[in-house]
Write a structure and sequence with these properties.
Layout (H helix, E strand, L loop, with lengths): L8 H13 L7 H9 L5 H17 L3 H12 L3 H14 L3 H11 L3 H17 L3 H12 L6 H17 L3 H13 L9 H11 L3 H17 L2 E2 L2 H13 L3 H14 L3 H15 L3 H13 L6 H11 L5 H13 L11 H14 L1 H9 L5 H13 L3 H11 L7 H13 L4 H8 L7 H15 L4 E2 L8
Helix pairs in contact: 2-7, 3-6, 3-7, 4-5, 6-7, 7-8, 8-9, 9-10, 9-11, 10-11, 11-12, 11-13, 12-13, 13-14, 14-15, 14-25, 15-16, 16-17, 16-25, 17-18, 18-19, 20-21, 21-22, 21-23, 22-23, 23-24, 23-25, 24-25
Keywords: Signal
């Protein structure tokens, strides 16, 4: 993403690690499944598993196990980890050998479910993600899981595979959980699934899921889930696809019109479109209007695009804003601020004459559009609208540029419906920018939609 991922992988990893930390208490899925199904363990398995189950349960309150487990979680080297795990094994009475013996005796579905549960929990005590994953897969493949429990186990199998950098395996289990309707309380499934697909070179699979979910939310009148939009935007960006990226960026801005969302949305289009300065300027203007400018680069790019020699008033406004917010210093501008200030007075003094010339019957389309551009740069959108309207349809004008700027002038006056109608006329390289300005106008008039239900399919 521009400067950072839409869904930070550092945050993702921390969230997953935190989520697994709370799972240190032994699970009781097998016991619940046994009660629900009125099944029983095989005689051979019951004989060897009872002691292991008792050990795992008592280990939660055993100081020696806790101390060794803490060492395993804190280990920095392979040697430290091996020593800590050996200490956990010893504190639990040689649990690894006992588990291995129980593996051979687990022949019935309920045996395998319980064996998987025990393996997963010992893996948690040992901070062994691979062991946790093996246990969860054993549970998921046991044939004894109920639909109510299967989704959570599949999700955790996907998470542990992801933590072990087995991304194709992670996608397999996360996709199964998703398809079964499971949604984790933390809302992490979509993000982990999408990143698993990306890391296993299949970003389109995640994008297809999210697109379907977002379209369903829009069709039902529900507010699309923000995580789902960002996941889709990330996938489209990673695939370097401008058109869908612009669509999802617009959706993010429209439904979640906060500065951070607009910064992410605009930055995606800005990078993928690689527009020439005159067209990129309209993106930077939207970034300013939405309060989404974050750093020095944003301000310097805006100033470069606007060109202080062409539109000194607008350039000076951005310079002053950057300085007042601590994003720019006068040294960053290398004397350009003083030069720009010297141009503003003369430029403003010429506005009246320029307006008179543009109002003459023989004024060309280029003169009318240029006059509109000047008044737009001086934050006079009503006058700009007048001249853009007169320029529309005139020979020799850039129809896309005029429609784009007319829509902007109207949006800045609160004429949102008229603005959207003009943005819809924009095609070519300016179209992605028009989509974002359309979303800006729509965000001002879209009534608050009901959030999508947590249980609804999400990307």
């Amino acid at each position: 993403m521009a400067r950072k991922f839409l869904i930070s992988r550092v945050a993702l990893a921390m969230a997953l690690a935190g989520g697994m930390a709370v799972a240190a208490a032994p699970t009781t899925v097998a016991a619940k499944e046994k009660k629900a199904a009125k099944a029983s363990f095989s005689k051979e398995y019951a004989a060897v598993a009872a002691e292991i189950d008792k050990t795992v349960t008592e280990a939660q309150n055993d100081p020696a196990v806790k101390a060794a487990s803490d060492k395993a979680r804190a280990a920095k080297t392979d040697a430290e980890m091996a020593a800590a795990r050996a200490e956990v094994d010893a504190a639990m009475g040689g649990i690894l050998a006992k588990l291995k013996a129980a593996d051979a005796a687990a022949t019935e579905p309920l045996d395998k479910l319980k064996q998987g549960e025990l393996t997963r929990n010992v893996g948690i005590f040992m901070s062994d993600v691979g062991m946790q994953h093996r246990g969860l897969v054993m549970m998921a493949e046991s044939g004894a899981m109920s639909p109510e429990s299967a989704g959570q186990v599949q999700y955790l199998a996907g998470v542990t595979a992801y933590q072990g950098q087995q991304y194709a395996e992670a996608a397999r289990w996360l996709q199964a959980a998703y398809d079964g309707g499971y949604r984790d309380p933390q809302g992490m499934l979509q993000a982990v699934l999408a990143d698993s697909y990306k890391r296993s070179n299949n970003p389109q699979a995640a994008l297809a899921i999210v697109h379907k979910e977002l379209e369903a939310a829009k069709a039902s009148g529900a507010k699309p889930n923000e995580t789902s939009i960002r996941t889709a935007l990330q996938a489209a960006y990673d695939a370097k696809q401008l058109a869908p990226s612009a669509d999802y960026a617009a959706m993010l801005g429209q439904y979640y019109p906060q500065p951070d969302s607009w910064n992410a949305a605009i930055s995606v289009v800005r990078q993928l479109a690689s527009l020439p300065g005159k067209e990129n300027l309209d993106l930077m203007r939207l970034m300013y209007v939405t309060g989404a400018m974050k750093d020095k680069r944003d301000y310097l790019e805006y100033i470069e695009n606007v060109d202080p020699r062409a539109y000194p008033g607008e350039a000076l406004k951005i310079m002053n804003d950057g300085i007042s917010k601590g994003k720019l210093s006068t040294a960053d501008l290398a004397g350009e601020k003083a030069n720009t200030e010297s141009r503003v007075s003369a430029d403003k003094a010429s506005l009246a004459a320029q307006e008179r010339d543009a109002m003459k019957p023989g004024a060309t389309g280029a003169t009318l559009a240029g006059t509109g551009d000047v008044f737009l740069s001086y934050d006079q959108p009503a006058k700009a609208e007048t001249f853009y309207t007169m320029a529309m349809g005139k020979p020799g004008v850039d129809a896309n540029a005029v429609a784009m700027h007319l829509g902007m002038a109207q949006a800045l006056q609160g004429k949102y419906a008229e603005a959207q109608a003009n943005f819809a006329k924009v095609s070519g390289s300016r179209a992605p920018v028009a989509k974002l300005w359309t979303a800006y106008a729509a965000s001002k008039t879209t009534p608050a939609a009901a959030p999508a239900a947590a249980a609804a399919p999400q990307s």
